[in-house]
Design goal:
Blueprint (H helix, E strand, L loop, with lengths): L14 H6 L7 E2 L5 E2 L8 H5 L12 H27 L2 E2 L12 E2 L4 H27 L13 H21 L5 H8 L3 H11 L6 H19 L5 H7 L5 H25 L2 H4 L4 H22 L18 H11 L3 H25 L2 H22 L6 H36 L1
Antiparallel strand pairs: 1-2, 3-4
Helix pairs in contact: 3-14, 3-15, 4-12, 4-14, 5-10, 5-12, 7-10, 8-15, 8-16, 12-14
């Protein structure tokens, strides 16, 4: 029987084109109508885990990192200033008169209500961010929750992120100032510890050295900063075991939030393709629902059944609404606080999606130090020797990591060229 000539000669397709569109292919049809099975599956080892972040995400570059870091610094600097103004501005109960020239003052101390407004605003901004992201990628509208499997880790992240700050605020009444600032300087340690213990992640040796240098530098800079008399008086008190436990829970919840978020982004084969905008919307919707439920349910529970730190906030929602009715001007600061936090979250989730939780925590840990450094330079003050040593350690750690990353990329590029020869 004569050999039939092939109608279409065999063509070589560049491997880059195959991999570029591999995610969208489920089946492939041949010329005779038969259906062939796909060659690769996303669940197959290296392909499923080849990209650290979401499948289809653009490669992260230095320019994106600079934009994300600048956005986080700018947003949360404004956020911190507004938070301080909200919580430390005295609001007089009635106008001053001749008989009472200095009327009693009250303060806005409703952290759960503030967190609720924050998460509600962030869910709205996240929805706009998600719509914009979908339109830029020219894809169909994606919901905030791509699969049922992702609900459990999302709820865990929402719980830990909502409860971390209340535990931190509560610990301030039971620990000295030095212990508090030192603990806040060590946020990188629980993040790395949880990555290693929970998710069996391993880091190269230089990563451990970078974390040690940054943590030591921030701690040294913070404790070397001149302390106000009020904080010095507070520092004289002794830390209690209860206060240290609250502070430990705060650090644990912060670490869990970041590591679980990182785990979701790096496990597309388990949870499906998930983006930063989707996580921002989903996490804040769940957080809003949880904090509203807390505010509505706690007044119905006998105080004796509540933990000590929650007994003073059983009527927080009613008290906050009454406060806003007496002092409507504070509402503008609350809305500005929520808006700055929501915009800052856009950059936070963009950083998480494109980079890692360890880098994100490095940015947030060094933010306060760099803010203090800029303040010192702006007002012509001088740094103490301890502060200069802290700055040197931080920049040595960050610079060393950058050099190691560039060397690693160069080795990978050379290995790739050698393989293609």
């Amino acid at each position: 029987m004569a050999r039939r000539k092939q109608l279409n000669p065999m063509q070589r397709i560049p491997s880059g084109e195959v991999m570029e569109h591999l995610a969208d292919r489920t089946t492939t049809s041949s010329q005779n109508g038969n259906v062939r099975k796909p060659i690769f599956k996303w669940s197959d080892g290296a392909i499923a885990k080849s990209k650290k972040t979401n499948l289809g995400s653009p490669p992260a570059g230095t320019g994106q990192l600079v934009v994300c870091v600048a956005g986080i610094y700018a947003s949360f600097l404004s956020w911190a200033l507004l938070q301080e103004r909200i919580t430390k501005t005295p609001y007089h109960t009635h106008p001053s008169i001749h008989l009472v020239p200095n009327p009693p003052a009250e303060y806005f101390r409703f952290p759960i209500v503030l967190n609720t407004v924050q998460s509600f605003f962030a869910s709205l901004v996240g929805a706009i961010y998600l719509l914009f992201s979908n339109s830029q990628k020219k894809v169909s509208a994606a919901g905030p929750i791509p699969s049922a499997a992702i609900l459990l880790p999302l709820m865990l992240v929402s719980i830990t992120s909502s409860l971390a700050s209340p535990f931190g605020y509560a610990s301030l009444a039971h620990v000295d100032y030095l212990t508090f600032v030192l603990a806040k300087s060590c946020k990188l340690l629980p993040v790395m510890f949880l990555h290693i213990t929970l998710f069996q992640k391993r880091y190269p040796m230089y990563k451990y050295l970078v974390v040690f240098a940054v943590t030591s530098g921030v701690a040294l800079f913070t404790i070397s900063h001149p302390v106000s008399p009020a904080k010095s008086a507070k520092g004289a008190q002794q830390s209690s075991i209860y206060g240290l436990a609250l502070l430990g829970i705060n650090l644990l919840f912060d670490g869990l939030t970041n590591t679980v978020q990182d785990h979701i982004f790096t496990s597309p084969e388990r949870y499906g393709k998930f983006t930063g905008p989707q996580m921002m919307v989903a996490q804040n919707i769940i957080s809003t629902w949880m904090t509203i439920s807390y505010l509505l349910i706690t007044p119905q529970i006998p105080p004796s059944l509540l933990p000590e730190m929650a007994r003073n906030s059983t009527e927080e929602l009613v008290a906050a609404l009454n406060f806003l009715q007496r002092h409507p001007s504070v509402l503008y600061d609350v809305l500005g606080f929520a808006a700055c936090g929501a915009i800052g979250q856009v950059f936070i989730f963009a950083t998480l999606e494109r980079f890692s939780s360890l880098l994100l925590v490095t940015v947030t840990v060094t933010r306060k130090m760099l803010t203090m450094l800029l303040s010192v330079l702006w007002f012509g003050k001088r740094l103490t020797p301890g502060q200069w040593a802290g700055v040197g350690l931080v920049f040595a750690g960050v610079g060393g990591e950058g050099a190691m990353e560039r060397r690693k990329k160069q080795r990978d590029l050379e290995a790739k060229k050698e393989k293609n020869r």
